[in-house]
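User: Predict the full complex structure for these chains.
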Amino acid sequence: MAPDKPQHILLPVRASTIAASFAAALLLNFLPWNDLRLAPDFVALVLTFWCVRQPRLVGLGIGFALGLLTDAGNGVLMGQHALAYSLLAFLAIWLSRRILWFGAAQQALHVALLLVAAQGAALAVRLAAGAEFPGWPLLVGPLAGAALWPLVSWLLLLPQRRALEPEQMV
Amino acid sequence: MEQAPPPFFKRGPAPVVRLFFFASLSLALAVLDARFRYADGLRSALALAAYPLQKIATAPIALAERVGGYFGRQSQLREENSELRATALAYAQDAQRFEAAAAELTQLRRLIGAAERLPVRSLPAEVLYAGRDPYSHKLFLDRGAAHGVRPGSPVADETGVVGQVTRVHPLLSEVTLLTDKDQAIPVQVVRNGLRAVAFGGGATGTLELRFMAANVEIQNGDRLVTSGIDGTYPPGLPVATVVRIERDAARTFARIVGEPAAVVDRGRYLLVLSNEAAAPPYPGEARTGRERRADKPRRGHARDADGAR
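Assistant: Here is the predicted structure of the two-chain assembly.
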């Protein structure tokens, strides 16, 4: 939404697109990653995207529910991801107007901060529950996720783009 | 009424209020789960909901493996076959000796009037995926409550103990590996029968014998097997080999580190053992099984006991 760039008006988002994107993200997260610390958290990424783009449709409730599902599916402490995703959704909604003002690279920097904050919340919960610190590679996942941000936001905006009319192409 | 905002300005509670609500809810759940294990019903239901997604996610890899196996080279197969035949022969010899020894042991135990040991039933299971939690060491098996897996059952592979079933879902079960920081297993040194408790070493992938006196009689290379006195693990399963001993005069206890006997984090097929031998109740007070399981040796308990003294 930078003022110096042309903006295309997007089609209204469909609820089915949002649901399908979350299902795909959960699927990607459930892939048997070799080292989970190094894998980007796709659910967090997609949740950030929708909270930034559609803060009135997707919010903390959905983040919380997705977090519970992730917790149960991964067999980790209940509430760990729920807290992380709630916090992530809050931060994303709070920063949504600011983030959209920047280009893709700067957006990714913002998103990196959000994802690291969410990971930090999960880490705090686990350390409080008596787990050991799993090492600094823990930071790689959020940063990899942020690096994927331009690609993910381009993909998720595809269904909302309308085909350009021939006379508009000129 | 006149002052009420029109409905299109209604956005529910402020985001901060929502964050506070959901954060407290999450933290309450975490406390309930970590301290009291109250959230298990909710967890089972949600795990069942996530199961199809997990199955789909792992399906392409399983399929690729099957296809790869189908096109496995002839020579490779032949080699593997001859290897397997050799090991089967060796095992057959062991099995014959074992049968004779078991019969003899039963006789001897009957002679001295000890309770007979019941055979341990085992259920083969496949590893669905490694634990999806960088904070702990866990595995997921494709056998659950529907197949007769019970929480607390020991899990082993062909080389030794791998861990213990800590949570059972309807279709899959969760195994905490020996190397997990919170896992403890009672062991015995094969060479001299010394008993100890091995704790998981966490990220190092090793086991640690804690609270052993600095002059304890133990050597590098000593093999540790399950002692079986806890009533959970059957006796005699290989657990670890001692690889490092640090005796520091400044400390009361020696630092003894062991390497797990089983390939804890790689094997594909595991055995879930069910040790259903009804252990006699402890003398003095007959307690239920659940209470006894809660009495697993833990650091906290030891400290409490010390403080009470």
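Chain A touches chain B through 47 residues (CB under 8 Å).
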